[in-house]
Amino acid sequence: MNFSAKNVFAFLNYKFKASIIKSVINLCKRVLGKANKKIAKRSKKKASTSGPSVLTRDQHNVSRKKMSNNALKVLYRLNSGGYDAYLVGGGVRDLLLGLAPKDFDIATNATPEQIKDLFRNCRIIGRRFRLAHIVFGREIIEVATFRGHHENATKKEQDCQKTSKQSEDGMLLRDNIYGSIEEDAERRDFTINALYYSAKDFKIHDFANGIADINAKKIRLIGDPETRYREDPVRMLRAIRFATKLDMSISKETEAPITELAPLMANIPPARMFEEFLKLFISGKAQLNFEQLRKYDLFRYFFPATDQMLNDGSHPHIERFIVQSLKNTDSRINNEQRVTPAFLFAAMLWYPLQGHVERLRDAQPQLSPQDLFFAALSEIMSEQQRSIAIPKRFQAVMKDIWILQDKLGRREGKRAYKVLEHQKFRAGYDFLLLRAEIESTPENPILQELSKWWTDFQFTDNNTQELMVKSIVPSRSSSRRTPRKRRKIRDGSPSDQT
Ligand code: ATP
Ligand code: MG
Collapsing DSSP states into helix, strand and coil, what is residue 381? Predict the structure, then answer.
């Protein structure tokens, strides 16, 4: 061996370097170890769900036969792509309850981009909550990546507004932090919605005692109710909706903060309120949901003007009118008949609209009934749009329904035939029936007579129709009009029979 000074120096240099590298590695290990322990401790402290209890196939009644084939295809494809994938939410909950799920939602550890790589028919949607939609014709299977806790997110993730964003009120403006299945379960709203079904082994993983709550018929938020409502106030609506839909009751702790936190609803964007309106009112449980929303003072965030009229008792018919319109909607849905949300919007705002007409008439008596109507329409719609973004196509139908209330009152000459041909005749006529049912009295049977006339007119033969038209005594308001003015009244205004 050559022990020259040069070699000894090189050897010592090597030893020194190695020991430095070793110390750095040890230091890193210590730091990382501590950090991991810290994270583990933090998530343990946060956890409100314990490890899942698992139901094997013979312990539950959820069968693949009752699932959408497309949802199963998505589960299988994700699994064979090497990812975990579970049916979650209403799909599991409703099947356990023996109900037909409205849709099938899937949760996975694949990121939206990884999902997109697996499915040609996939589109990524949402900013607040990024999701993958797998499109099978009219059926869409929603696939969400497991969500994690925001406080467990890295600094970089928290700083990136694309992933995580929270308002001063604690509302989650972005929820794109990904995590484990355990964290995902904690981020779900209610215990009964945190059930995960695997198509690999047919087991159900119950992370939050959801099965016990299904059996006890309890709607219970996961975690601290106030924090969860602050993160997303729509959960208050969801609590009500699931309670009425599933014939369950809201647990005491979940119910307690609702009325006090109801004002948080004012922060929900009108477009989301429209979606929630549909879920609550075009559901077959509209009447019950209306009563519950009123009970918790949440209805005002959908229809402020209507709510105020209901509260101040300024109109004798409004409550019965709304309840009857909701009952009719429910029974149509439960009989699988078509309904349009526009009819309900028209019903909700009918008396507030009359209120606007009256106020404008007092302020500007020189305005014609038509001008009054259109001015009131524009006022009420711009006021209402601040709460619910009603799509234009429904606004147009609402307007037609209201205008038809006037047209249905004017039947002389060719008018009745024209009204019968109106595209929205059926909706306008149904609305008239509703008004007649609520407003007619033995002393004031006008609407009752009018609706009976239209019921007969539309189903009778031509000769009788002719006789019916001839027998009409022209109403004072229409006979008073000059021909010029009449031509101008293309769209008319609601009749003054209200
Ligand atoms: P349904 O489809 O019958 O209305 P659902 O429970 O499936 O009921 P979805 O709106 O389809 O409700 O949502 C699917 C699942 O996503 C829910 O079961 C729940 O686990 C979760 N989820 C939905 N909205 C929220 C929310 N605002 N906060 C927390 N979790 C939510
Ligand atoms: Mg669903």
Answer: helix
- Cα gap 374→380, rounded to integer Å: 10
Compute the distance from residue 282 Cα to the ligand 2 centre, in Å: 15
Residue pair 474/412 in contact by the 8 Å Cβ criterion:
yes
**In this structure, are 109 and 222 located in the same domain?**
yes
Residue nearest to atom 18 of ligand 1 (CA): 89
First CA to last CA distance, the chain? 114
| Six-digit token string for 478 | 């229409």
Q: Give the C-alpha separation, 279 to 272, whole Å.
A: 11
Which residue among 94, 175, 184, 189 is the active-site one? 189
For residue 78, give its domain range: 54-229
Does the residue 285 lie in any domain? no
Host H or E run for residue 17: helix 5-46
Q: Do residues 466 and 323 both lie within one domain? A: yes
Flag whether 90 is in a domain: yes
Ligand 1 midpoint to CA 470 (Å):
58
- Give the single-character DSSP code of 178: B
Q: Which residue(s) pair with 190 in the sheet? A: 221
Q: For residue 166, what pLDDT is reported? A: 73
DSSP string, 105-172: EEEESS-HHHHHHH-TTEEEE-SSS-EEEEEETTEEEEEEEPB--GGGS-HHHHH-TTTEEE-TTS-E
Torsion of CA 55, 59, 63, 68, to 10 degrees: -20
What's the number of domains the chain is made of?
2
Whether residues 192 and 312 fall in one domain: no
Q: What is the pLDDT of residue 218?
A: 98
Say if residue 210 is exposed, middle or buried (CB neighbours under 10 Å; 0-12, 13-18, 19+). buried
Q: Are 285 and 244 in contact, with CB atoms under 8 Å apart? A: yes
Cβ 103 under 6 angstroms from ligand 1: yes
Interval between CA 136 and ligand 1 midpoint (Å): 21
End position of a domain, from candidates 194, 213, 229: 229
Q: Which atom of ligand 1 is nearest to the CA of 232?
A: 27
CATH of the domain at 422: 1.10.3090.10
420 lies in the same domain as 311: yes
- Letter for the amino acid at 489? I
Is the residue at 299 inside a domain? no
Q: Which of 229, 262, 281 is the last residue of a domain?
A: 229
The whole-number pLDDT of residue 149 equals 83
* Sign, CA torsion 329/332/336/342: negative
Annotated active-site residue 362? The verdict is no
Residue 84 sits at the vertex; the CA angle it makes with 83 and 90, to the nearest 5 degrees, is: 135
Low-confidence residues of the chain, pLDDT below 70?
Answer: 1-50, 151-165, 173, 474-498
Predicted TM-score (pTM) of the model is: 0.83
Q: Give the CATH number, domain containing residue 103.
A: 3.30.460.10
Give 480's Cβ-side CA count (13 Å radius). Answer: 3
